[in-house]
DNA sequence: ACTATATGTGCACACTTGTTCACAGACAGC
DNA sequence: GCTGTCTGTGAACAAGTGTGCACATATAGT
């Protein structure tokens, strides 16, 4: 299939009867997909060239401009896609409901499963969160911010620490999510043939999340630290 | 000074009486410095070109090869430099001793001061930790790993949670350090003319660290989670 | 059915990039 | 002091890059 793409270069030839806008979106997605694929092979986004992407997508370089002004614009679109994945993940976890035993382990399991199902999205998110262009960083930060707020609201809804102000809940969630993203990056970097290391990393990850929630249970809304010794 | 560099391009002309090895190391450091400077201006390491670096360093492209085979090799040297900075930070904190009141706030203050004193090192560390080439990622992971172990040992020495196995202490420290690096990245990205936002971020950061240690105090060595409900 | 439009092609251009090679000058050891 | 060695220079090259332009061709609206 990849070879097929490379041989018959004409994107318009592959789907000659699908409506105009539909085909446009198809090649647009092919460009995005190409970028993701290239990134999952060691390359990082800022080092991708426009031509490289179009080549991988099976499209002539100039066709790129029909969809994006810039590589940066493609980057932003990518971030949006990753954000979408994140939100679907949240919905998935919500759907699973609130198990009575070992909530954390359960949620983490869903999370890890999701990470492995969308490795390219998570790698991109983790990698460009601090690395990419300033614009891309900001975009990712926004996405993560949304995620944090949604998660905090979810905790609200299930009545978790309902005595805390939203601010505090979001602080906690942000810590959790940072930990999640770091773990995703670590796990995706692991050689696939090391199930032992994988398990260790996962256990470590679970421990960290558990630790955070242990702290969260003890958190006091407004500790007046200056008078505390 | 930057202009001076660009005008008189000959590096050998600038310091004509300083010993051979010494001058070699000087231009080597200039190359490293150039890379750091370029990175602190939006560029990320993988997008740097060899020529760009030599240009900024005020050296002809071919001179690069006298110091590094590769850009990757320069990257590794950079990581080492960042690791050195991290270790000096740790020594600084150690030197400060163990204040009796509000240890966390105190340590965080030192940390933030350090981050602002070496912004380029911390940006690089945060950014290439997930973004760079696989080799660079691994190198950073090693440095961070050392840091984690040293910090865990320090906690040991001051008798913090001496009942816990080293493994658990390291898990805690790794969580702390992840949070530290994320915070560094966030803070360095902030527009400099927003002291209010800066303060909020710092407070949030302190809260997170505090939360982690709150959890750490409650952590049980071997919670048999399967029998716990 | 005819025409205008939008998507993808092909070619062109000016640049930048990494790397090779012969060369110049400063230093170190005899 | 002479000679060999090492660091930095300069010109050169092939390859890759972003982008502008005129062209094809399938589609949508009349």
From TrEMBL, chains A, B:
SUPFAM superfamilies: Homeodomain-like. Residues 25-86 form the HTH tetR-type domain. Residues 49-68 bind DNA. PROSITE patterns: HTH_TETR_2. The keyword Nucleus does not apply. GO terms for molecular function: DNA binding. The keyword Magnesium does not apply. Keywords: DNA-binding, Transcription, Transcription regulation. This is HTH-type transcriptional repressor FabR. The lineage of its organism: Bacteria, Pseudomonadati, Pseudomonadota, Gammaproteobacteria, Nevskiales.
């Amino acid at each position: 299939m990849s070879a097929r793409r490379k041989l018959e270069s004409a994107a318009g030839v592959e789907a000659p009867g699908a409506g105009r806008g539909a085909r446009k979106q198809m090649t647009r997605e092919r460009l995005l997909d190409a970028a993701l694929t290239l990134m999952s092979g060691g390359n990082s986004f800022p080092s991708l060239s426009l031509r490289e992407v179009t080549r991988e997508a099976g499209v002539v370089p100039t066709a790129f401009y029909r969809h994006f002004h810039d590589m940066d614009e493609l980057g932003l679109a990518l971030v949006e896609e990753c954000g979408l994945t994140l939100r679907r993940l949240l919905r998935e976890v919500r759907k699973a409901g609130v198990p009575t035993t070992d909530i954390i382990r359960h949620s983490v399991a869903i999370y890890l499963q999701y990470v492995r199902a969308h490795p390219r999205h998570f790698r991109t998110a983790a990698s460009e969160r601090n690395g990419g262009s300033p614009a891309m960083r900001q975009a990712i930060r926004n996405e993560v911010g949304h995620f944090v707020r949604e998660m905090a609201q979810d905790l609200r809804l299930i009545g978790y620490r309902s005595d805390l102000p939203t601010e505090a809940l979001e602080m906690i969630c942000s810590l959790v999510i940072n930990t999640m993203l770091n773990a995703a990056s670590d796990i995706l970097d692991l050689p696939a043939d090391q199930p032992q290391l994988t398990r260790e990393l996962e256990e470590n990850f679970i421990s960290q999340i558990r630790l955070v929630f242990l702290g969260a249970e003890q958190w006091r809304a407004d500790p007046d630290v200056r008078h505390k010794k």
